[in-house]
Amino acid sequence: MDFIGAYSWPNLRYLLQGFWITVQVAGLSILFSFIIGTVLGTVRYARVAFVSRTVAILVDAIRNLPLLLIIFFIGMILPQAGIRIPTFWAAVVGLSIFEGAMISEIVRSGLVSVDKGQIEAARASGLSYMQTLRDVILPLALRRMSPPMVSQFISLIKDTSLAIIISLPELMRNVKILSGSSFSYVIPALVFASLLYFTLNYSLSLVAKRLEARQI
């Protein structure tokens, strides 16, 4: 194990460049999956006849597929059909679709958990169903679903490593390439990558714990 050689500035910079790609992919995927999940979860909760049922089938189908397969399909199969998406965005799209489906279940469960008395009070005050959903149910549900949603985002960050299959130059791919240059770099590179993942995910876990404490 050559920690000194592995941790030379050029090597660390190379790993940090990969980590920056990981952070960008994770950040965009969190944003898009939150939007997708909120929309899909709300539609399922609203029970709009044909639409809600179609969304439910779509969400269940996506949730029961391996994320690796989704990323591979978008990054490797679609180009064969003439639909070319840059590797970076292929990873973002794959993660956003899969995590959006997962988050939609969190959103739906959060909406269902809102006390019916509060809903009836809002309707009795003259609010329409959509106004009640937007101004009363959704804000209350978001507070309750925040801890599990943050936990899902932590999983998303770790799942960015699966983009290695489409050669995205994220952290784990750069670890693999650096390790390939010298076997003595394998463990030092993995240790450094672990520290980066831990720092990012632990920070988010503290946010989740704080949000959870506010619910008590």
TrEMBL record:
**Residue ranges crossing the lipid bilayer per the database entry:** 20-43, 64-82, 183-204
Predominant location category: membrane
The membrane topology of this protein is: Multi-pass membrane protein
| Name this polypeptide is given | Glutamine ABC transporter permease
Q: Which UniProt keywords are listed?
A: Cell membrane, Membrane, Transmembrane, Transmembrane helix, Transport
SUPFAM superfamilies found in the cross-reference section: MetI-like
Q: Which family does it belong to?
A: Belongs to the binding-protein-dependent transport system permease family.
What is the annotated localization of this protein? Cell membrane
The organism sits in which domain of life?
Bacteria
According to the entry, what is the taxonomic lineage of the organism? Bacteria, Bacillati, Bacillota, Bacilli, Bacillales
Describe the location of the ABC transmembrane type-1 domain by residue ranges: 19-208
The UniProt record lists the keyword Mitochondrion: no
